[in-house]
Design brief:
Blueprint lengths: L2 H8 L4 H8 L3 H9 L6 H12 L7 H8 L7 H22 L18 H7 L3 H19 L9 E2 H20 L23 H11 L14 H7 L8 E2 L18
Antiparallel strand pairs: 1-2
């Protein structure tokens, strides 16, 4: 058994699951696992990210301890969100280090952004680099039991969580074997959410977020107004106070003394 196959098995991944995570066919994965040079460079890079850059800084037990006491999110949901952010960080790092490949708007979380956001960003390497850094930073916070809406922070952090939720949901539904070592949340009352209650999680984040407009860059109609007030290059600024008005809810700006 070669190193790549051993790593995959240590991560408790089947070849089928690993191929899904890499976004390649099972046949391509098998060829790459046997001989990396036998597949295209982009495919090889996608396969490498699955094995060599998966989140491993904390154990599964750490995730359970960090999130088991929360009624609005489960340890498996938290793990899925962190895994998506880590994969995006790796995808962005690969794009930044490459002189060719897909356009930036097709990479990582930026593929979830409304295209009008990317009109302002283009192929900006600095923007891609800071998004990569924030993906990694937020993933590490999640491992410690913290989501962006739990502390004052950056608008981009909450946008990244919004972008990650659908992919995290899909990971948990389509690849349950990735989460077998984290205990499922068995719901026997109305006071806690289960692993499938993503709408409840989204509502909780929406209610508690510092930035009431965290979903707007993902395609809501109020995006043009948001971009007038928040250029994408300002999304990394450290915001210490909640916004004074909500574009999402259609409220008019308030005068703050």
């Amino acid at each position: 058994m070669n190193e790549r196959a051993s790593l995959r098995k240590n991560l408790h991944l089947t070849q089928d699951t690993a191929a899904k995570l890499a976004g390649v066919s099972v046949a391509t994965w098998r060829r790459w696992e046997h001989e990396p040079s036998s597949v295209a460079v982009d495919s090889a890079a996608s396969c490498e990210r699955v094995l060599y850059r998966r989140p491993q800084e904390h154990s599964d037990a750490d995730f359970e301890r960090a999130w088991d006491g929360y009624s609005q999110i489960t340890p498996r949901q938290a793990y899925a969100i962190a895994a998506v952010l880590d994969l995006w960080a790796d995808e962005l790092a690969t794009w930044i280090g490459s002189s060719h490949g897909e356009p930036l708007h097709q990479i990582g979380p930026l593929a979830s952004f409304d295209s009008r956001v990317m009109f302002y960003v283009g192929e900006n390497l600095a923007f891609a680099g800071v998004v990569r850094d924030r993906c990694s930073a937020v993933a590490r916070e999640i491992e410690e039991g913290v989501l962006p809406h739990m502390r004052p922070g950056r608008f981009i952090d909450e946008v990244l969580i919004g972008a990650a939720l659908p992919s995290a949901h899909a990971h948990l539904d389509e690849m349950p074997e990735l989460f077998e070592r984290i205990s499922p949340r068995v719901v026997d009352d109305d006071e806690q959410v289960g692993d499938e209650d993503w709408d409840v999680l989204s509502d909780w984040i929406d209610d508690e977020s510092y930035a009431a407009d965290w979903e707007v860059p993902l395609g809501l109609p109020t995006l043009p107004t948001l971009l007038e007030h928040r250029h994408p290059f300002t999304w990394f600024d450290l915001d210490r106070e909640p916004p004074s008005f909500s574009l999402v809810r259609g409220a008019a700006p308030m005068n703050v003394d």
